Amino acid sequence: MLRHEGRRSGPRSVIELILIVALALGLALLIQAVLVKPYRIPSQSMEPTLRVGERVLVSRVNYHVSDPDRGDIVVFHPPTGADGNQCGAVHPPDQPCPRPTPQHSNVNFIKRIVAVPGDTLAIQDGHAVVNGRVQKEDFTNPCAPGGQCNYTRPIKIPPGYFFMMGDNRGQSDDSRFWGPVPRKWIIGQAFFSYWPVERIGFL
């Protein structure tokens, strides 16, 4: 009888295994869709904070309970035309782009928030000048001399918009060129690096 029960339990065990695997996959997809999503750093724009190929986890729930803030590293959809540094408004050459194009791109970018709604912002030697004060940003790479390092005529960040910059200030296509990003385009906050091993840690 023991052998007979073992033979009958074979198909049942396979079905149970299939159900467990399907449940695990479904749970993993749900976590990615609702809670946390992995993201691979595609470019040098966030060096030295994040390196090319580094993997980070992005929380999709933080901003349901709190507002994005200066210093947050976020993944978001840039405006259409960001790959060509297209601004959504005509502006003087010594001023950052004040407004993005109206539609977002389907690609994802990762940058740092340097100004929030209501802030006035200018750029000096690659550093954000927020509400008249040069920000202490010792996490950045120096910005090489040139027009992209200095935008002395300030803009005011509109309600519901956030100004993004890469930490590698001389090698980052960011809001300086294509404007601040509306909150609804922000996917989530990067909070943890999990690969490579020597880079593991909270951001």
Keywords:
single chain, alpha+beta, Umud Fragment, subunit A, eight-stranded antiparallel β-sheet, four-stranded antiparallel β-sheet, 28% strand, elongated
Please characterize this protein's 3D structure.
The protein is an alpha+beta fold and 203 residues long. It contains 3 helices and 12 strands. The strands form 2 sheets. Strands 1, 2, 3, 4, 9, 10, 11 and 12 form an 8-stranded antiparallel β-sheet that branches. The longest helix is centred in the first third of the chain and has 34 residues, at 2-35. The termini are far apart. The model is unreliable at 1-8 (pLDDT under 50).
Residue share in helices? 10-25%
CATH C-level category of the largest domain = Mainly Beta
CATH homology-level superfamily of the largest domain: Umud Fragment, subunit A
The CATH topology of the largest domain corresponds to Umud Fragment, subunit A
Instruction: Provide mean pLDDT, rounded.
Output: 89
| Terminal residue distance | 60 Å
Number of helices: 3
Structural class based on helices, strands and sheet pairing: alpha+beta
The whole-angstrom Rg is 22 Å
Strand content: 25-35%
The domain count comes to 2
Uncertain segments: 1-8
**Total number of strands:** 12
What is the 3D shape? elongated
Query: What is the H/E order?
Result: HEEHEEEEEEEHEEE
Main beta sheet strand tally, sense and closure: 8 strands, antiparallel
CATH architecture of the largest domain: Ribbon
